Amino acid sequence: MRNPRRIWYALVAGIGLLAVACAKHAPQTTLKPEGPVGRKIDSLFTFTFWIAAAVFVLVEFGVVYLVWRYRHRDDRPEPAQVHGNTRLEMTWTAVPALLLLIVAVPTFRTIFELAKTPKDPIRVTVTGHQFWWEYNYPDYGVTTANEVHFPAGRNVEFTLKGVDVIHSFWIPRLSGKHDVEPGRVSRISMKADKPGVFLGQCVEFCGLSHANMRLRAFAQTPADFDAWVAAQKAVPGQPPTGTPAGDGFALFSVKGCSGCHTVAGVSTGTVGPNLSHVYSRTAFAGDTFDMTPDNLRMWLHDPPGVKPGSKMPNLGLSSTEITNLVAYLQTLK
Ligand code: CUA
Predict the structure, then answer these.
(1) Measured from the CB, is residue 126 less than 6 Å from ligand 1?
(2) pLDDT category, 3, cuts 50, 70, 90?
(3) What class does CATH assign to 122-233?
(4) CA of 285 to the centre of ligand 1 (A)
(5) CATH 2.60.40.420 domain span(s) along the chain
(6) Which of 143, 113, 145 lies closest to 129, judged by CA?
(7) Which of 310, 277, 278 has its CA nearest to residue 296?
(8) Residue 70 CB partners (closer than 8 Å, separation 6+)
(9) Which of 98, 141, 231, 262 could crosslink 274 through cysteines, CB 3.0-4.6 Å?
(10) Would you place residue 323 in the very low, low, confident or very high pLDDT band (cuts 50, 70, 90)?
(11) What is the dihedral sign for C-alpha 145, 147, 149, 152?
């Protein structure tokens, strides 16, 4: 042991990494699937994992045994050198080939099962933007951002589209990930067993705020989902003039917010997220910040300062302007 300290460091780092697996609150684990698609992928993973684990243990055992058995000793002559052994070579070619075949059968079956178009799905078009997700429901005429809603127990078919760089759409507990590429339309479907909230994340490095491109899926009861759709379709009312919200409403056009954002009945911008019902969401800016008045203040004060690479510019708003805009945003439920 030339450097025992280094070995200690490696050991501590290794144990630390291992301990990560003990995390109780792991909302993005793939190992506890909550829907049929996730379960299919998970059972294929488990099957392949145990075959790989058996191969690993056997090979490592063999290597360690041979190293130990034929280690150098001053009084021991060099072991006999063997070249070529037809039977052995046939075996270690045939056994891995057979193992690959055994893994290939369920793999291909799962690939084809997952590629099937589901029956009677809720259809959602997902567009990846730097750094947020846009959702369109073509059958309902609803557009929203970052937080996607659908009924539990029903298939959801996501049509994935990219407009700038490559992103990747992933809700780990429901399904595998799928790249979102500009100029290419792809599909991924999934289903949640029961109502619940599932966290997701962009999983293709897409720029400075890749890590801040999160998402949240709300699997709801059919009644809750219908109520959500109805609320999203409603056209927000305009706040009365002379109030902070009314002043914020005026600023929304004056400061150019309306050029980039849609608010139903007010503006039709498509550069940033649709804000018609922004305050009904639990978080904003790529699901990065909880939807609170304080966080909105922080955001409006300097968007690229709190979310690097954000396309929303620092508009140099005064404290009063921010107060009024936040008051207006709070009316967009
Ligand atoms: Cu989008 Cu990473």
Answers:
(1) no
(2) confident
(3) mainly beta
(4) 13
(5) 122-233, 244-329
(6) 145
(7) 278
(8) 79
(9) 262
(10) very high
(11) positive
